[in-house]
Amino acid sequence: MEKFHQKPITFVGEVSINVMELERAITFYQEIIGLQVLERTDRKAVLTTDGKTPLLTLEQPTDVIPKEGRTSGLYHFALLLPTRADLSVFLRHLLQTGYRFGASDHYVSEALYISDPDGNGIEIYWDRPSSEWTWADGEVAMATEPLDGESLLAESNAEWSGLPADTLMGHIHLHVADLQKTDEFYVKGLGFTVVNRFGGALFTSTGGYHHHIGLNTWNGVGVPAPKKNSVGLNWYTLVFADEEARNKVIEQLQQIGAIVTQVNGVFVTADPSGNEIHLVI
């Protein structure tokens, strides 16, 4: 894999979501997605692929309510596989389980889309080599075209045995209420670059990636944030190269009027639509 998810680049590391029933969610994420349980308590499970790095945390709030429609929050989180062969194996596994999914070719990547039993969106993808991406005027060409499933299946006939150990949280895609305020927060505040704009969406990254964070108003302009106990996003982490890089971003956030607090030693902020972000090193 290329170096879009390591220092000095700022990238998404881990995502935390609420689910209705923890046990059911764990079963789904193990048997359909192929993650492993790293730690668990009665109401929380931390999932991994390499046995040590948290990628996804599932939580079941005591008074949990189903996913609300037409709010800001999670559109999908995206797990990045190392190779096309890995995606081929995953596609065959999905076909064998009979679980419903969608598929797209985005030019920069090939992707499969699933929802968990509670409606949390998941993308599983691999990146084409960055040398094959097309850039013009600072924008990367991306589209949503039909995926060539036959070609993908022909890539590998290996048995599925869960997600590869070096699977990463490739990106996150969020519903937001206002693109202008969102643009200011992610660009002037967090220091990301807009690499593509189309149809009510912004795609932002650092280090020349096609996107670490996608942001859209497809649930409607001005939508409210979901309730804290609703199924959906709790928070996601942005991983900084070092303390200096994080301090610079905290300063930039404060300059645009964003609030950064420290909770149990973690620096926490939220975008203008209420999506919570943990700033980690």
Radius of gyration: 18 Å
Please give the domain count. 1
Shape descriptor reads globular
Output the CATH homologous superfamily.
2,3-Dihydroxybiphenyl 1,2-Dioxygenase, domain 1
> Which structural class should the secondary elements be placed in?
alpha+beta
Strand content range: 25-35%
What count of helical segments does DSSP give?
5
CATH class equals Alpha Beta
Number of strands: 18
- Averaged pLDDT: 97
Roughly how much helix do the residues carry, as a percent range? Answer: 10-25%
What's the end-to-end separation, in Å? 21 Å
Q: Spans of 5+ residues with little confidence (pLDDT < 50)?
A: none
Question: In the CATH classification, which architecture applies?
Answer: Roll
GO molecular function: catechol 2,3-dioxygenase activity
Organism: Peribacillus huizhouensis
Pfam families: Glyoxalase
Keywords: Metal-binding, Oxidoreductase
Short overview:
The protein has helices at residues 22-33, 84-97, 149-153, 179-189, 243-255; strands at 11-18, 36-40, 44-48, 56-59, 73-80, 102-105, 109-115, 121-127, 135-136, 139-140, 168-175, 193-198, 201-205, 213-216, 232-239, 261-263, 266-270, 276-280.
Give a structural overview.
InterPro entries: Glyas_Bleomycin-R_OHBP_Dase, Glyas_Fos-R_dOase_dom, Glyoxalase_1_CS, VOC_core. Keywords: Metal-binding, Oxidoreductase. Its EC number is 1.13.11.2. GO terms for molecular function: catechol 2,3-dioxygenase activity. This is Catechol 2,3-dioxygenase. The chain is an alpha+beta fold and 281 residues long. It has one domain: 2,3-Dihydroxybiphenyl 1,2-Dioxygenase, domain 1, CATH 3.10.180.10. The protein is 20% helix and 34% strand. It is built from 5 helices and 18 strands. It has an 8-stranded mixed sheet with strand order 2-3-4-1-15-18-17-16, covered by helices on one side. Strands 6-7-8-5-11-14-13-12 form an 8-stranded mixed sheet. It has a two-stranded antiparallel ribbon with strand order 9-10. β16 and β17 form a beta hairpin. The mean pLDDT is 97.
